[in-house]
Amino acid sequence: MELSKRQERIIEIVKEAGPITGENIAEKLSLTRATLRPDLAILTMAGFLDARPRVGYFFTGKTGSELLTEQIKKFKVQQFQHVPIVVKESVSVYDAISTMFLEDVGTLFVVDDHSCLTGVLSRKDLLRASIGQQDLNSVPVHIIMTRMPNITVCRKEDLLIDVAMKLINKQIDGIPVVRDTEAGLEVIGRITKTTITKVFVELITNDQV
Ligand code: ADP
Q: Does residue 172's CB lie within 6 angstroms of at least one atom of ligand 1?
């Protein structure tokens, strides 16, 4: 994150004189305590400073990049998941290809009548099926999909970094976010390589270190 001149000055003061009260920091800067309050809140929330009641503010000793890493490690799936694009098991390969184009995704999740996960269709799964001789309208996707229980899933409370590692280790492009129900694993979202790329770009552009 980018700090203002005043916030940098506050860190310097706390480094030199901490633990120090908000009142004393304000005095050193010839500002009121009220003016300083938002800056102190930001610096505390971001982890540069810590505050102890009746003691004051002190410097945590953490650098910007350490704090950013800590922040990224806490990212949860639910903060970043997108809506899943699903098809029913009985849908034809032809219709699944159309859905993939229309929805502009690279992975489709296959579900049963309870919206529960039964399979996954990647671009290559559909390509492979298409280079055969079959009539794509008459082949249902459940014939060619990767099926349960061999599907890597995640849950909304999982850490995003763990899901990113699964994408790399399993060499797949997308992972469904599921919720446990009596009928099975209900598909409620998706995390894909694009999700992770977007997070990376947002971190660099909105939140420069
Ligand atoms: P592509 O095949 O287009 O490169 P992937 O790398 O995602 O896309 O898929 C590779 C294979 O892994 C495909 O056969 C696909 O069905 C399967 N697959 C994709 N996602 C998952 C997943 N979450 N769990 C298990 N297998 C998957």
A: yes
